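Lab notebook page, bench 4
Experiment: in silico fold of construct C2
Operator: M.H.
Input chain length: 414 residues
Purpose: comparison with the prior construct
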Amino acid sequence: APGGDLLRDGAGVLPTGRNIHALDPYRMPSEAAWARGKAAAERILEQHRAANKGALPETVAVTMWGLDAIKTRGESVAIALALVGARPVKEGTGRVVRFDLVPLEELGRPRVDVLASLSGIFRDSFKNVVDLLDDLFERAAAADEPPEMNFVKKHALDLAAEGVDRPAARLFSNPPGDYGSMVNERVGAGEWDDSGELGDTWASRNAFSYGRAEEAGGAPGTARPQVLDKLLSTTERVVQEIDSVEYGLTDIQEYYANTGALKVAAERRGGRGRVAVSIVEAFGSGDPTPRDLEQTLRLEYRSKLLNPKWAEAMASQGAGGAYEVSQRMTAMVGWAATAQVDKFVFDGAAERYALDEDMASRLRRANPEAFKNVVRRLLEAAGRGLWEADPGMVDRLKELYEEADDLVEGVAGK
């Protein structure tokens, strides 16, 4: 059975029991992915222009993850191609053999530079796509076009003038054979002082360049922090796809640990204030118009964490449900550190899961450690200034934490 999403692609993606595979990486992006990705890129630029007096972004960071690439057959790749002003070229068998630059006369706007943030899975699973993208950026940087109409070339020339090697490198990921930004580990352990540290952690873990030109030099995965810093300093928008209706930005740690931390890294290096984030829902076949990050976070928190039906469903699942609530509270601190979480979200979470005696009792009985983490994260958010909590509420949370800690210690002692 080919890879894909059940809601988006229908029953054809269900396993048949024979010749099981995900997708042919040599046919990525597919026709459908190219159409949707191109449309999404156009809407992303329209949104940016509307918010910036008609100006285009010089650089857009596009996250490329393995699972969403499989489910969408390469939609994130298509978004990157459309932003740069390129299109896939196929041979007679339907395989993609090259990404060609669209002539500027046909494109009708400057080429937008792209910082491709690759997950370790994407990097390892789609080497052919990585090589084709690397070849595209090398040709874009060398194109006979004015720099003001080709931001890839503009930034490559700036880097070359500084004596930086591989100024056209645009595909960045973790060290070879390694995975993850380590930002979620720092948030989970509480080992950070300010959001800038989380952005720096992301940058240090994703400073490794990949592609055909790197392999020609004999060192795939070469650390190129100067190139990455230049791209981050010119990044004005980040693009992240959500590939499932089952989980979203607020459900797992990896979203804030990558998209959120990338945003902070760009803001820290660019010095221009807020970097916008466009969220593209890739699990449907309808309009790919992106949402702003803040809008998406509010929607998810209202529909899940603050939804009494969702809370009851989690509580009824015992230890596992309490753990799910606990994990989302940790992720909420991560998002508050790297983006913004509204006060009403923290207020509502505290009232529903900690200050509601019946809910607190159920979570505490089912999973004492998880309940302790729920209270701990609320206190952490208040202590770090991420949440302007009522002093009386903070005092009550401190009492609950002491009780939870005593319970956990008692369980451990037994």
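Observations: The chain has a mean pLDDT of 93. The first helix runs from residue 6 to 9.
Next step: discuss at group meeting.
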